[in-house]
Amino acid sequence: MKKFATVSALALAATALAGAASAEVNACLITKTDTNPFFVKMKEGALAGAAANGINLSTYAGKIDGDVESQIAAVESCIASGAQGILITPTDSRALTPVITQAREAGALVIALDTPFEPADVADATFATDNFKAGVLIGEWAKAKMGADAANAKIALLDLNASEISVDYLRDNGFLQGFGIDIKDPTDIGDEDDPRIVGNDVTNGNEEGGRTAMENLLQVDPGVNLVYTINEPAAAGAYEALKAVGRENDVLIVSVDGGCPGVQNIAEGVIGATSMQFPLLMASKGIDAIAQWAADGTKPENTPGLDFFNTGVELITDEPVDGIPSLTSAEGLEKCWG
Hints:
It is elongated and about 60 Å long. It has two domains: 2-129 and 279-307, Rossmann fold (3-Layer(aba) Sandwich), CATH 3.40.50.2300; 131-276 and 313-335, Response regulator (Rossmann fold, 3-Layer(aba) Sandwich). Helix 8 links the parallel strand 8 (226-229) and strand 9 (252-257). 45% of the residues lie in helices and 17% in strands. The protein has helices at residues 2-23, 37-53, 68-80, 97-105, 131-146, 166-179, 207-220, 232-244, 260-267, 279-296, 329-335, and strands at residues 25-31, 55-61, 85-88, 109-113, 125-128, 155-159, 197-202, 226-229, 252-257, 273-276, 309-310, 314-317. It contains eleven helices and twelve strands.
């Protein structure tokens, strides 16, 4: 009799374990790369959130920014594994639409992080910075910082890649509008006719690309005096190219992301100003949304008036200007990538 009770207890324990395993929530995080510090921090936030919520999180990344094929394969793997939720920073906000649609049809909650899909409702929700506003802030700051010289600016724009995805054109055009340049098509890059624009080049969001793009645009006009970059790794590369020709002290560089290395570059005078995002917050909110969805089917809501949930943006500079709220680099280092 005692032996039977022991066997029954083991059977009950096995059943309980099987029930717990079946109730486990499986989710995926797919980033553009696993080398850009921005996405490293995003992954860190997602893993911490998954652990806190009891979610089994699988992570994937493209080889470089723009690697659509790897992201498609990652989404397909997530569908095959029965993931209930997918967090993704789309490397191409249009080309991924078919596979994202398949994921949603398979029952997964799909949340875009940082980069909205086109249209935004391709995903169930988006947690992101207002990327246009991030661009506007650094454009307004650069115009105020240059003062009367803004009328004679020679501007180099260092963008992401040839796909011109949403995060790319939003930041670029936001910067131009903030600087006081009329933008044409707000979803296009490089169609402006303002003579102050020297040109655009692509960086793939990394330091090597930023250096090469800066070298190319200096060939177009060695008198460049203002540089916009899609992110801070590209800005660091641009600075090295300028330093190589002795121009590092007379060219103003502005950027977007607000990572701790970028904020340190503010303190060191490499970058004049940057717009800080909060990728850890994006990721943690995304994980919380997947947990809620798995629990009761509730989907996250957008910020009123927007087609995404706005995770905020802060201007970081050690040279504040009147009328534009900002934080110092010391304050930024206390907040970077929260």
